[in-house]
Amino acid sequence: MSEERSLNFLEEIIENDIAAGKNNGRVHTRFPPEPNGYLHIGHATSICLNFGLARKYNGKCNLRFDDTNPVTEETEYVESIKNDIKWLGFEWDGEYYASDYFETLYEYAVTLIKKGFAYVDDSTAEEIAEMKGNLNTPGKESPCRSRSIEENLRLFEEMRDGKYKDGEKTLRAKIDMAHPNLLLRDPLMYRIKHEHHHRTGDQWCIYPMYDFAHGQSDSIEEITHSICTLEFIHHRPLYDWFIEQLGIFPSHQYEFARRNLTYTVMSKRKLLQLVNEKHVSGWNDPRMPTISGMRRRGYPAAALRQFSDTIGIARRENIVDIAMLEFCVRENLNKTSNRVMAVLDPVKLVITNYPEGKEDIFDAGNNPEDPNGGTRQVPFSRELWIEREDFMEVAAKKYFRLAPGNMVRLKSAYIVQCTGCLKDDAGNITEVHCTYLPESKSGHDTSGLTVKGTIHWVSVPHARTAEVRMYDRLFRIEDPSNEEGNFKDYINPDSMNVLPGVYIEPALAGAKPGEAVQFMRKGYFCVDTESTPDKLIFNRTVTLKDAWVKEVKKG
Ligand code: ATP
Ligand code: MG
């Protein structure tokens, strides 16, 4: 895609490390999700980055579940994460779980106690917070800080054995209560949680904190480049401190900027709220910024990879316009999806000089972008469905579609001339009438006419009915997380519009979930996972053009 682009800062670091012979030129990264939700498009960036670097430098990339918090983690999430990574096109070298290291981490903690670098504290969470101090004031040392090594060893073992209740004791690193970096003021290493863990069950009632699990897990796996998002930059000295005191493999942490997207929220905690409070149908609702939602919506994996690559890796927090992502989606779908006809808002067109009972079968090309795309058969008859908006009783200026007297081409078929319409008592148009020019057959046109408009259609007796779900932005404003009040106040009430009676070509009758098509002039659509042969359901993946920008400017 971007062979010519210059190296990003991580590639520069890696190339320098390789040149210097660091780790014998070995590159080993990891993607470390916490299995507390489904992955979102921000994670996709991290996946493409970590797996991409490993691929580029002939290295390895592990998948490591950062499952140190038993309360929020579930096996369902583990499965969805694996599925999403595979779908994105990556394979991990090793599948690991931080929980597999609980015993080793416990031993590491014992090592630190023995070296006088860790102690058991009886202070409550509030007391610990109070004694922390702030940027201007040094913290206060806990009275437990001077406990003997023997006592600490005994108490820590008792913590493990379940002698204490949640919150009654913690294990803390003994660093410096006056350290300018607050994270180094005797950070917590272990807390007591009598909770069932999705993998270790009830084996443990003490769980390591992120800071005493992540770096150690990296080290156990001999990760060379541990890439995380910028909010961990102040944790790096602690990451290094633990590794140094333990004398274990020196993994290094590098930070890049979290990637956000306009008109959505990205934190799993917020996405979980949308799911639990039923603002969406689930984690894989096609409006969700999750990988599974985007897959169901019809976004190709290649588009997500392209998006991750084109926006590059930044050092500063940034919010990317969702239009960029949609651009990548369109570019991919344009090359791969077949063009078909579907009428979303139907009105009947009657060709009064086309004999009743007669039909034509047209061979229509599937994809002008793909010479090997083949053709399909499209039946034509006297009565067709067309879009209501393709007829006007009184043509507006520059309206080149159907209006009394106007001529248009019916895509892949004939030129017709509009002769009028029928209405019901309420004045609604019930039928549009026209005549056709037999000599104007597409591909064999001898009429000598050129017309300015081409419209799509579906033959009434041959049409199948489908439900089409039209999607729009989930939020009304660009950055709902950054706004006053609750992000949920900014949910777009019109983010989904269901069209129950859409007419589609019979060629689509057997379309399978996941199949992507372009409904000519209407956008890219895909068959939803809930679709069945008896009830076809399509999702609108993306419009053909970015209509939103115009809408906003119009106000
Ligand atoms: P969230 O805040 O959405 O729950 P998280 O960072 O807690 O995200 P993890 O499961 O810990 O989620 O993330 C796994 C990896 O993905 C981490 O290395 C994290 O830095 C990265 N990551 C998460 N969100 C983003 C994002 N928006 N942009 C880039 N990388 C991200
Ligand atoms: Mg996290």
Structure, explained:
With 555 residues, the chain is α/β, with parallel strands linked by helices. The protein has 3 domains: 17-256, 3-Layer(aba) Sandwich (Rossmann fold), CATH 3.40.50.620; 268-297 and 316-338 and 466-554, Ribosomal Protein L25, Chain P, CATH 2.40.240.10; 342-456, Ribosomal Protein L25, Chain P, CATH 2.40.240. It has 13 helices and 27 strands. A 7-stranded mixed beta sheet has the order 12-25-26-27-23-24-13, with helices on one face. Strands 21-18-19-20-14-17-22 form a 7-stranded mixed beta sheet, with no helix packed on it. The protein has a 4-stranded antiparallel beta sheet with strand order 4-5-6-7, covered by helices on one side. Helix 8 links the parallel strand 8 and strand 9 (252-256). Helix 7 packs across helix 8 (236-246) and helix 11 (301-311) packs across helix 12. The model is unreliable at 550-555 (pLDDT under 50). It binds adenosine-5'-triphosphate (ATP) and magnesium ion.
CATH class of the largest domain: Alpha Beta
Can you tell me the overall shape?
elongated
How far do the termini sit from each other?
A: 37 Å
The computed structural class is: alpha/beta
Strand ordering within the main sheet: 12-25-26-27-23-24-13
What order do the helices and strands come in, and which of them pair?
Elements: H1 9-19, E1 28-31, H2 41-56, E2 60-65, H3 75-88, E3 95-97, H4 102-114, E4 118-121, H5 125-131, H6 149-160, E5 170-173, E6 188-192, E7 206-208, H7 214-220, E8 225-229, H8 236-246, E9 252-256, E10 259-261, H9 268-276, H10 291-297, H11 301-311, E11 318-320, H12 322-336, E12 338-340, E13 342-343, E14 346-351, E15 360-365, E16 375-380, E17 383-387, E18 407-410, E19 415-423, E20 429-437, E21 453-455, E22 458-459, E23 464-471, E24 496-504, E25 516-519, E26 523-527, E27 536-542, H13 547-554
Parallel strand pairs: 1-2, 2-3, 8-9, 10-11, 12-25, 14-20, 18-21, 23-27
Antiparallel strand pairs: 4-5, 5-6, 6-7, 13-24, 14-17, 15-16, 17-22, 18-19, 19-20, 23-24, 25-26, 26-27
Helix pairs in contact: 2-11, 7-8, 11-12
Adenosine-5'-triphosphate (ATP) binds at residues 32-34, 42-43, 45-46, 66, 228-229, 258-260, 266-268.
